[in-house]
Amino acid sequence: MNTTIKHFRSAALGLVAAAAACGALAQDAYPCKVVKLVSPYPPGGTTDILARLLAPGLAKELATTVIVDNKGGASSNIGTEFVSAAPPDGCTLLLGNNTGIVINRNLYKLRLDPVKSLTPVVEVASVPLVLYVNAAESAKTVDQLSAAIKAAPGKYSFASGGSGSPQHLMGEMLKLEMKVDMTHIPYRGQGPALQDVISGQVPVAFETTTAIASQLSGGGRIRALATTGSARSKNLPNVPTMKELGYDNFVVENWYGIFAPAKTPAALTERLNRDLVKVLKSPEVSKSLADMGSRDVAGSAEQFNQFIAKELPYWESLVKRSGAKVD
After folding, report:
1. What pLDDT shows up at residue 280?
2. Cα dist. 215→101, 134, 200, 236 in Å?
3. Quick one: signal sequence residues (predicted)?
4. CA-CA to 202 of 20 to 30 Å: which in 4, 59, 247, 305?
């Protein structure tokens, strides 16, 4: 091999090494100085809590700043639309839930369909709901509640944190399954709804295990009758599931996930998924999620996309069958 060829090969190898190094640097450097993680609800709710739980770990993995931006209102539609319309550059993300992604499209005239205008990145959490009543109610079981409602036509109402929420639609499902009539009382958030059930203004409601566990553990002002998970909640092991009680259609959980605007490059989506899964699997975050009553649901972006596809017909059918409206 002559000297010229040797020098050429050496130079070529050097260029390959330099290109590899540049590629590694490009992969490590996230393209945004600041990532805005939008929570489409006011501060203090489950979505906001999850966003603030994930933000520090995500900032560390991306080596950039991550801020939580609360854009509440219109049953999460304002914040969801904001991210849907954002540039697909990985700098604006949504911590959405089933209300904003798969339910509201059946109830509201939306300018942007979240399913088409957002890209699923990773599922974050999934928690069952609890059917509960004010402690002054005589009903101590679901069957007793059904009998009490049937015995007092027009008396009973149920609270929710807003039209279109899973809590609202579970109340509509309860009416269908029990063949009873109840009036829906929507509130601006689950917190006010819970407080009015506690005070006795409204007798019945559904709430996530996350939000209600502390109220059930002390004071005796409300009583849990059943949960909507496929199995009993570890946080409420003595409370039966609706499925156990013969309500097979009542296997429902409130789920949450990270979304990016549609057309976000696949490489960015894959990186966000990889880094977020690492955050979700970290000891501190995974323990916090378990304490909130969530299952471990972190997986690939494609798995999350497939899950959403299965959710769409369930909620569309429930809205049609129940006749649920925006109150």
Report:
1. 98
2. 29, 11, 14, 12
3. 1-26
4. 247
